[in-house]
Request: fold
Amino acid sequence: MEQYYKAQKIMSDEEWPIFWEHLKVTLPTTFRITGTRSHAVEIRDTVKNAFVPHLANISVDGVVADPPRPLPWYPDELGWHFDVSRTLLKKSPEYTKFHQFLVAETEVGNISRQEAVSMIPPLLLDVQPQHWVMDMCAAPGSKTAQIIEMVHANEQYKVVPSGLIVANDADYRRSHMLIHQTKRLQSPCLIVTNHDASLMPSLKLAPNKAGDIIPFEFDRVLADVPCSGDATLRKNPMIWTNWTHGGAMGLHHTQVNILQRGVQMLKVGGRIVYSTCSFNPMENEAVVAEILNRANGTLELVDVSNELPQLKRRPGLSDWKVFTKDGQIMEKFEDIPKDARGRFYPSMWPPSNADNLHLERCLRIYPHLQNTGGFFVAVFKKTAPFVVPNSSRSVKEKVAVQENENAMASEGEEAAAVAGDKHKLDSSAAGGQGSEPVKRARMTRAERFGAPGPKEEPFLFLDAENGDVELFSKFYGLDEDFPKDQFLVRSEGEKNKTIYFVSEAVKNILKSEDIHRLKVVNTGVRTFIRQDSNSPAQCTFRIHNEGIAMMRQFVSDARVMAVQLKEVITLLQAPYPKISEFPESIQERLTALPTGCCIFEFDPELEEDKDQPNPRWEGQGLTGFVKSKLVFPVWKAQVSFNMLLNKQERRSLAMRLGVDCVDSPHVVEGGAKGTAAKAAAAAATTTSDADVDVETSADLSADDSPMVDRYEGAPASGKEEEETA
Reply:
């Protein structure tokens, strides 16, 4: 590897030793604070004010670590990193407490463990709330989550963003990891799809409410493609022994095809970002140069030197070498013997016009510059309609493609197998130095992209006049301007169990006459759930916590109860508090509430004793680090209440308030289910290992299966390694 990259001259001889030594040092821990801006700022201030001041100059066994600090180039101090050994985490009470906080907030999605360099591509996309964005190779989903946050950045009152996010992955199982990663962001603008990225289908969309037919094109596209992953050496030491340059060569053509399809689906004037976690010019500048030449002037590299100014980067290469499997440098494609061309494409060599393509505008991120992993990024702008193939190159390219298909070298076949997955290629897959190409039968789709998933349930929209829609609309007093025709269900039957809400843009896609061409795995925010209860209720639908933030804007105040901190603590510390357990000042109002679901709203600014010191958080008021308004669903039974938050959400809220809590399932009293659940909840208060969630077993329909939330066993990949710190 060292000899190969020295020959590529990816940096100066003077810089090389520093770079090489950094590759052998373990990466620091990095994380990103997620969610809407107001919520993210609250978590950020908790980190800055509650923990960082107590983590300076901590020494254990003579080891002193710097406290966590913001990444200097990430906006609004929402990206952080720290370098702490496991010994320090275990032996330092201060760091142990901080680690527990990180774990708790990660469980509920307020914090995302994400490698620093993985955060860069979405920032350079420059996403605005009205944009349609496609993430072509999205799993495991950290970058998609960033894009969702950008689409929802405005937080306008009673406005559902007009933007759209299509998050795609070629592997069905990994698409469920993507669903899990993006779930907490609760966006009605997200669609998760399962396609080979190079073959994303075109659609003829249904007209919008104004009668306009919007083409299925995107303002922004992210092509974070499958790659050899050798820039992840600092966290993946197996690459040191398994690396061959054949891995990059096997993926080159796949990467070109994915990027080309992304450009085709990009609007004129739009921006597409291409990225890899590889140092290899075969996967980087060679791909960029090929697309620019195919575009024939309809695409240009964007100079982003003024964006993220504190991010240290190196320019892209305009010259590089192509090696045979035995290490011989080939100056041009024609020098390759015809019987050995199966693993080569003409586009692997620097084009004759390389100096005119402005390849120096690409970004090369090296580990020693800011103590990160390695990365490559190129930002393009589409200036005119893109037509392929480019006739000036098509004949030569067709010859090479035909020879590749005839040869069926192991590199190309194994590389294609990871088209939707960022696997590193080991020596057996890459067919690199010292290995002989093995001719194989053509792979099936299941072998190349993972087993196809089961047939998805249909997406069925409910009319605004549907009986269920009318029932919960009247009960919760939904605003007249709320788009009641954007609710859908995932199963055909007389009794709707789970009702989802989607944006207008998502509805237009799902109503397309060509929707059968698009394999949609997941979309919509769970908004209403039919609640089984023996207690009589005017409306059996409760508001799901995933949809509470959105629905609060449109729900009548008649179903909203303003509460103080004491009531919130009562709900956190008792599984099923009776009305008599609440302060007398609120008991009459609680009694008057009809049976069923309601919304509790806590505004820290209105807390009567907010200036009193917090018993746990030094220097904070009584509400701890809860600074913005909280809303959460509560079910009122005949004589008791239940906070409809899961265990992790309860712990996170209690930690920020500086109080203790008990874990409780979200069930209602009454009937056999309620009796069993109460018994389980009582056991949970005395058994620390208990993990009872009655809603999971009793109240969720098949499409709400917890396998989406608790998915394990997806194949490990270079992309996942690059995205998660």
Remarks:
- The chain has three domains: 28-114, 120-449, 558-698.
- The two ends are 24 Å apart (CA to CA).
- Residues 390-397, 405-443, 445-451, 665-717 have pLDDT under 50 and may be disordered.
